[in-house]
Amino acid sequence: MEAAEMTRLNTLPSTRDQARHALLLLGAPAPARLVVGVHQALFDGDLEASSLTALLRAERHAAAPVVCHGLAGDLTAAHVALAAWPLPRRIVLPAAARADAMRFLIRVADLVALHTGAGRSADLLLREMAAEVPGGLEAADVRDAARAALESPSLVAAVEAEWPVREAVAARAAALDRTQQLFGVPAVPQQRGRG
């Protein structure tokens, strides 16, 4: 192996650090595909879906995990999150996830705007994220479209309506052991009814 290649390999951040950087930018539990896409478009490294999956498996057995899963309403694993985030922040509910998607776009677009040479991969990421925003693909400024969607009365009301559910899920999750709080409980397989 040549010295230049060896130096490059030694200076890449670890998979854990790469996932952490992307999650810190996003600020809430996010789909694994988005975590990988954000890191690939905006940061140095080689984060891929397979390495993120392997990281999550390893973190489950780590003494001090950094990356974990969010929890769905049924306490199963949902999205990717940071273990340092408080339990209520790691709960993933439908309306809050829609609101988070708007916030993700705003945060990513703000970072891209700061780095004028962000490149084609950042533009493609923003376009993909804008598809989740009502009117986002046609908007002159995707951040404005995301802010308008985030402030829409229907989304605000839906997020507010989820607060009692979030509190109930957090209370149930608090009774779980630490590993289950970070990685969820196994999904119960669906059983077929008898015909």
Which helices and strands occur, and which strands form pairs?
Elements: H1 3-11, H2 15-26, H3 32-42, H4 49-60, E1 67-71, E2 77-82, H5 94-114, H6 120-130, H7 142-150, H8 153-161, H9 163-174, H10 178-183
Antiparallel strand pairs: 1-2
Helix pairs in contact: 2-3, 3-6, 5-6, 5-7, 5-8
Structure description:
The structure is a single chain. It contains ten helices and two strands, in the order H-H-H-H-E-E-H-H-H-H-H-H. The protein has helices spanning 3-11, 15-26, 32-42, 49-60, 94-114, 120-130, 142-150, 153-161, 163-174, 178-183; strands at 67-71, 77-82. Mean pLDDT is 89; it is low at 1-8. A hairpin with a 5-residue loop joins strand 1 and strand 2 (77-82). The protein has one domain (14-183). It is globular and about 45 Å long. Helix 2 crosses helix 3. It has a two-stranded antiparallel sheet with strand order 1-2. The chain is mainly α.
Task: For the structure shown, list the relevant keywords.
about 200 residues, two-stranded antiparallel sheet, 10 helices, disordered N terminus
